[in-house]
Amino acid sequence: EVQLVESGGGLVQPGGSLRLSCAASGFMFNDWHMDWVRQAPGKGLEWVSYISSRSEAIYYADSVKGRFSVSRDNAKNSLYLQMNSLRDEDTAVYYCARDSGLGYSIDYWGQGTLVTVSS
Amino acid sequence: QSALTQPPSASGSPGQSVTISCTGTSSDVGGYNYVSWYQQHPGKAPKLMIYDVSRRPSGVPDRFSGSKSGNTASLTVSGLQAEDEADYYCNSYAGSRLVFGGGTKLTVL
User: Fold this and answer.
1) Do B52 and A102 lie within an 8 Å CB cutoff?
2) pLDDT digit string (tens) for A58-91?
């Protein structure tokens, strides 16, 4: 069974940093591209970042470019999102998600981890 | 990076059909056949319902169908059932990035 378990969320002050982790299991992690998607409270989904299976290709939404950094450790079946210079508008549930390999769609999502940026 | 435009709400009675639109530009929806649709129930993670404009993943009922014309994609839910009540999001590849729609709350009357 495919499982994606995020951790690392919490309360942080504006300007602060946080590192999210995602532990993957139930599939060959190093064969799959991965994404981070976020959802502000009561709002819609927003794609944040993409990383290819061997980290050759990395992309970011304009809203986080230069502040967030995605990485992965295939030996540890883990995906990471380093978030710096956090702003109030970064407050959201952050989902770790697996690219389905079917077009550019996502077939598995974690349960999400809440990041709250507030003073 | 503007979000794709979806109506905030849609509704229909059980057994009826409802169509949700998703309007983008030639840089996203109109430029690629990589539109997907997701269903999200309250407090749950999204679920993939349609990919590549009109393809259904295994396990998704054939009551769900997708199409595209120009810069607008559509999701049609036929034979509405109570469990179809949820938020629906469209998503498109836009060249090195993905863009989501603002979401549509589907109510089954």
Assistant:
1) yes
2) 999 999 999 999 999 999 999 999 999 999 999 9
Q: Is the dihedral of CA A39, A40, A42, A43 positive or negative?
A: negative
CB contact under 8 A, B34 and A109: no
Host H or E run for residue A119: none
Burial class of residue A59, CB neighbours in 10 A (0-12, 13-18, 19+): middle
A33 has a chain B CB within 8 A of its CB: no
Q: How many CB atoms lie within 10 A of CB A113?
A: 22
Strand-pairing partners, residue B75, are B20, B66
From its phi and psi, is residue A11 left (phi > 0), alpha (psi between -120 and 50) or beta? Answer: beta
Q: Give the whole-angstrom CA distance, residue B37 versus residue B51.
A: 7
Residue A6 contacts residue A98 (beta carbons within 8 Å) = no
pLDDT tens readout for residues B16-50: 999 999 999 999 999 999 999 999 999 999 999 99
CA atoms within 13 A on the CB side of A17: 7
d(CA A30, CA A33): 8
CA separation for the pair B77, B67 (Å, rounded): 12
Query: Residue A60 — φ and ψ, nearest 5°?
Result: -135, 150
Answer yes or no: do A50 and B97 touch at CB < 8 A: yes
Which amino acid is it at A29?
Answer: F
